[in-house]
Amino acid sequence: MTENKVAVITGASSGIGEATAKLLAAHGIKVILGARREEKLKEITEEIKSSGGEALYRVTDVTNGQEVEDLIQLAVDIFGKVDILVNSAGIMPHSPLKDKRIQDWDNMIDINIKGTLYGIGAVLPYMNEQKSGHIINISSVAGHYAHAGGAVYSATKWAVRAISESLREEVAQDESNIRVTIISPGAINTELLSSVTDPVLKKNYEQFYDNFGIPVNRVAAAIQQVVEVPEDTTWNEIIIRPTKQI
Ligand code: NDP
C-alpha cells in the first residue's frame, strides 16, 4: 500500500525522525530527510541507500520558512510528489519560568511551533493538488499535561495539537483526502535531553529517562502503521508511553 509513496521528514538527523526515515524506507517509501547537521543526514541517507532504500537529504533549519519550502520542493522535483510529511524537528530546553531564559522560549516557539507550521504551509499546496496526503505532527504527552519547568515546551506541544486538530477540520471539508495524525510520545530514548539547559532539571530528566525511557523504534513503528491505514480512515492521535510512566 505504501509502495511508491514519498515522505519528507524533518528532524531526521536523530531520534524519532531518523528512526522513522529508516523504517519507512525499509517499507519501500522514498524518504527525504531534513535537519541542520549535514554529516548526520549524509550518514543516515547512505545507510538507507546501502540497505536498498531510496533517500535524499537537504540541510534544513525549520525556523527558516524558505528552507522548509526548498525541502518540500526537493521531494517534488526528484520524486514528483509528496505523500507524507512528518514534522519531527523539536527541542525541549526545560527551565523554570522565573529563570527567564527568553532565548530558550523563543527557540522552542520557533522550532516546535513555527517549524511545524512552515512544514504544513509548504506541503499543503501539493497535497491539495494531489487531492491526498498525510501530515504527521509530533506533539508529546507534554501537549496534554503541563509540569513545573515545562511551561513553554508544553505550550508548544499543546499548540502542535491545536494546529493539527484545526487542520484536520479544514481539510476534511475539502475534496481532498488529506489526513492529519498527531503522535504524542512519552519518554523515548533519543538525543532530546541534550537540549535541556537547566542543570537540575536535566539531571532529574536523565534519571527519569534512565528508569522509564523506551527505544525510539516504538514510535517509528507506530508512524509506519499509521501510514498503512486505508485512505478513508485516519488514526488522528496516538499516545505512546512507557508502560510504567506516571
Ligand atoms: P532528537 O533530539 O533526537 O531529535 C530532534 C531533531 O530535531 C534532530 O534531528 C534535530 O536535528 C532536529 N532539529 C532541532 N532543531 C532544528 C531546527 N532548527 N531545524 C531543523 N531541525 C531541527 O529528539 P527526538 O527525536 O526525541 O525529538 C523529535 C520530536 O519528538 C520533537 O518534536 C520532540 O519534542 C518530540 N518528543 C520527543 C520525546 C522524547 O521523549 N524523546 C517525547 C515527546 C515528544 P539538527 O540538530 O541536526 O537540526
In CATH terms, the superfamily is NAD(P)-binding Rossmann-like Domain
Inertia-based shape: globular
Radius of gyration, rounded? 17 Å
Helix and strand sequence: EHEHEHEHEHEEHEHE
Q: Total number of helical segments?
A: 7
The CATH architecture is: 3-Layer(aba) Sandwich
- What summary fits the major beta sheet? 7 strands, parallel
**Count of structural domains:** 1
CATH class: Alpha Beta
Average pLDDT level = 97
Strand percent estimate: 15-25%
CATH topology assignment: Rossmann fold
Number of strands: 9
Class based on secondary structure composition and strand pairing:
alpha/beta
Uncertain regions spanning at least 5 consecutive residues: none
Bound molecules: NADPH dihydro-nicotinamide-adenine-dinucleotide phosphate
Strand order of the largest sheet: 3-2-1-4-5-6-9
Specify the oligomeric state. single chain
Residues in helix, %: 40-55%
Calculate the terminal CA-CA distance, rounded to whole Å.
37 Å
InterPro entries: NAD(P)-bd_dom_sf, Sc_DH/Rdtase_CS, SDR_fam
Family: Belongs to the short-chain dehydrogenases/reductases (SDR) family.
Organism: Alkalibacterium olivapovliticus
Protein name: NADP-dependent 3-hydroxy acid dehydrogenase YdfG
